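Issue 218. Parser rejects a valid record. Input:
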Amino acid sequence: MRNLGLRIAVAAGLALASVAGAQAAAPVPPAAVVPAPQAAAAPAGVSNIAPTTSAATPPADAASPTLAMDGAPAMVPQAGIGQPVDGRYGIQPQVTRNGVFAHWMHDAILVPVITAISLFVLALLFWVVFRYRRAANPIPSKTSHNTLIEVLWTLLPVVILVLIAVPSIGLLQAQFKPAPSGAVTLKAIGNQWYWTYQYPDHGGFEVTANMLKERGEVQAGTRFRTDADGPPLLAADNRIVLPVGVPIRLIATANDVIHSWGVPAFWMKLDAIPGRLNETSFTIDKPGLYFGQCSELCGARHAYMPIAVEAVPPAQFAAWVRAKGGTMPTPGQASDKVIPQPGAAGSAAKLDEAATTNTMTGPTENATTIAPATTQGASGNGGGTGNAGQ
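Output the parser choked on:
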């Protein structure tokens, strides 16, 4: 009888845990409450032109901080926004649609399900230890098999995982959707140990970002980090600037070892692998200053590769591009720039090497390099139908 009671109690407990998990994962609040990730790819025949504002954007005022020289902080960090907070538990406030959806899924689905299952298993362990201790159960049971219990503890967890998989797969798909036409292309190149950024569709100008050291770590007269630059280990001497409300095509690669471009507030982490161009897209919804860092162990100074992003209105972004000597592309036009991998023919390193050779020995005659024809986007990866209005 005691063995039968144990079987019934375990089976009932597993059933209750499954129901609690299913209730936490299955109900979907109203559309006004539940955020949605970026939409799936647009069907054939639907325009994939992104809502850009690069045309007719009035230049920023001459005193605009976005026109400041490199090294001058144009934005002051806001406490708790775009950066970690000491002692806080949870995910940073998100400023992309994917990030908002992922934050909701973490708080409303994953944490309740994990908590319910963990508490149930802990309670079951305590109950078994107490109920079947030697004093209360001097003659132990020799039961070695129970079909009902084994079926329950196999099928019920599968049901819970399937319910969780439904929103998870949608979020995963949304994180790697192609960027639409008219997106702003940002190429991030990882180096040991700093970041180099290029804007291929805006004249190809380049920005190099290094970590700002503390006052006591630099020589007199050398710039050091201040609170206006950002938190320690996250402030960079040169920030990159991106427009708000315009899709961003992020292309990541590396010159030496594997790096990873990650900004928690964007729900973004993209590996930068030598000899390979990885691509994803996102749209920043709110202006502000957001920090990240290399998220892949890349050597001795891995912890000193910060990322600082200023998200500004499109008009200020256009003014910043012009101040850098760049140009604004035709609005809505698909990118036609070919972005070579680091070290490949046509890359910045090879062009610099050729220029140095020409300076020392003169140009090479009768050498013709024909650029490969492509109809793909800036990275040459996955053209086709994009997605408007991310």
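Fixed in the parser; the record now loads. The mean pLDDT is 75.
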